[in-house]
Amino acid sequence: MEAVPDSADEAARPARYAVPALEKGLDILELLASSPSGLNLTAIASGLGRSTGEIYRILQFLEARDYIVRNRQSDSYSLSMRLFHLSHEHPPLRTLVAAAVPVMEELSSGAGQSCHLAVLSRTNITIVAQIDSPLPIRYSVRLGAQFPATETSSGILLCAFLTDTARRTLFLQLAQVMDESALQAFQTKLGEVTSHGYEERPSLRIPGIINYSFAVRDRHGHVVAALTVPYLPQRNNYAPPDSVRDMVAAAAAKLSAAIGFRDDSVA
């Protein structure tokens, strides 16, 4: 008969089983996710505090399974689109994107601007849906692109509406790459966005662009995505900035309703 562990045995059991190879593989994927330009073997080993011998075979395996790709000229590794495609097979995200596309097409057509939908992944955002402006001259963000959450309007909005527990985890992760004064400024900015309910500011990346970001909520009221229009001013714009802001707010509310959110404050 198989012995049944007593409470002492349970207490002594480790919190998790050690799977060193899997842990190294996940560490590599997470490191490459934060390094969009790619890293070579030596840089990956240094970033993870491991020897090149420890991770070389794991890199080969990840490349063979198409999770990473190697640039033959620079000998650097970067993430493939496999994880992005896998994430789109996840039912909640697939449902969100399916509901978002017609709403975003209507928004882009009415505003004469491109728009995109972003979700938060650790300290980055990922663009999961994107619609181009109908105008000949446009600014848009590539589908599947990732950016640091702290440097984007979508990311700041998503961070602002995290739960207290999720925000504490986020700040522990950010403390590894940001100094105390930068973290304090970021926390102040999150408070401003929470107070306003949306994010509006000039783009830090592209001069002349104004970002309008509004929250998309699920049926539980949780913010699951950010809908953003990077407003490109040009002659004969379809709509002025204030009108575009209102259009983004209305589109975010419409998408939220489409995935089950009910705003009890609306009579």
Task: Outline the fold blueprint.
Blueprint: H1 7-12, H2 20-33, E1 39-40, H3 41-48, H4 52-64, E2 68-71, E3 76-79, H5 82-88, H6 91-111, E4 115-121, E5 124-131, E6 146-148, H7 153-160, H8 164-174, H9 180-196, E7 199-202, E8 210-217, E9 223-231, H10 241-258
Antiparallel strand pairs: 1-3, 2-3, 4-5, 4-9, 5-6, 7-8, 8-9
Measured as a percent range, the helix fraction is 40-55%
Q: Give the percentage of residues in beta strands.
A: 15-25%
Category by helix and strand content: alpha+beta
Total count of strands: 9
Q: Determine the mean pLDDT.
A: 86
**Contiguous runs where pLDDT drops below 50 for at least 5 residues:** 1-15
How large is the radius of gyration?
A: 22 Å
N-to-C SSE string, H for helix and E for strand: HHEHHEEHHEEEHHHEEEH
3D shape: globular
| Distance linking N and C termini | 64 Å
Strand count, sense and barrel status of the largest sheet are: 6 strands, antiparallel
Number of helices: 10
Please state how the strands of the largest beta sheet are arranged side by side. Answer: 6-5-4-9-8-7
